[in-house]
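Exam revision sheet. Question 4 asks you to relate a sequence to its structure. Input first:
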Amino acid sequence: MATREGQAIRIALIIFAIIVVVLIGVCVYFSNGARALETDKATLQQEKKRLADKSETYMKENMKLRTFLGYKIDEKLETIQVEFNKNMLCYDESVPTTFEELNYRKLPKYYQTKLKELKGDLKNQQAQHTVLLAQKDATIKAEQGKLAKLIIERDTDIASIKDTLVLQGTKVKDQDLKIESVTTDIQETTRKHNEKLRELNDRLATAMTTLDKADRTINELKRKNRALRPENDILAKADGKIIRINSSRGRVTINLGSKHGLRRQTTFSVYDADVSNVATGAVKAKVEITQVDSTSSEARILNETIEDPILAGDQVYTVGWQPGQKLHFALAGDMDIDGDGRCDQKRLRNMIESVGSVVDGYVDGEGNTSGRVTNMTSYLIIGERPTEKSKGAAREAFTEFAMTASDNAVEQIQAERFIQLMGWEMGEQTITSGSSTPSTKTPPGVAPKSTGSTSGAFRKRTPAGSGR
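Answer key, structure tokens:
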């Protein structure tokens, strides 16, 4: 009996232990579930806050954009859309009625095309005008010759028939009638030519008025376009990118070539692939084009650091050249780009023209002027402004260039900033190897060499022209 009671007690204890273990497991399970629930709740709160912050950022940006466009911050999008459509139509009835491909940035280009068409029409009309004037002068001259001949014939007849004036009176009368008829023909021809000339003059005046209106419209749109851009935002889109690297030769390959108008000796600044605004991004290296193919080109590395080497996918950019386009520039003032105390404006002009861009005009520190700033000029490069001690002609010419640029909404950029964005070195070019200390310095235009210690990733680079 005692044995059975002891067994019963042991069984009861085992069952009790099992129940306790189960209860502990259930408690642990629900405890972990509660902690996971709290964790999820905290995560949801953080995500809610992030979305709220992002929504607030979008709302602020939206209000700022409305302010840039000249609207109240609470203006409805429908109202802005209606005003936009009106703006697209108010300049010219020939603007398309669909605006999917038109905006405030593209409209100047549209009017530039219209301006070229109008200038072509004006040129044709001027040519017609010249031809008609020549025809008029030739006709008048011929008729005047006929009239002079008839007058001579009449005088001769009168002299020869003085004694038989009565008998020859009819002949004299016929001659007078003939002269009168010719004179009437000359007057009628002159009248017709004058009417045609007045018509051409009216058409010419209308065309000139249209051209002036188009010029004013384009300049106004340029100013609006620049007002909508962030400060110092100068051609912020990269021109191309690095597609291959040959570290042993100090060469890279970019995805631009003769098809895009690229030339040898064009220099580019190199930026990281994730830089969104290359005009304000950090320059990691500089390269110079040495060989140009149809759709790609090889370039030698001018400077670079091992800490931040050039990688495939990095972006390249230069302010003095654009793929498939010819940029126009004007220059004003002295420009010492290498720090030797002498004006290097001519050298800068040669550099611009060497990459296929156009110099519309310039004025140097002495007041010597060539060409002018036009509404086709992309940039006015500003050098050292003439002082009160400078020649009066230099000050006047500099001011005229600056005012013309302002009137035509031409972008103005300091020479030092232009050279920096162009990818040229201000003075000597360097290549760094292993540290930020330049290993070799060479003047601009001379192939640099790399010396000092190198790692397995960066072997010795051979200068251009070595045959390797």
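Marking note for examiners. The radius of gyration is 41 Å.
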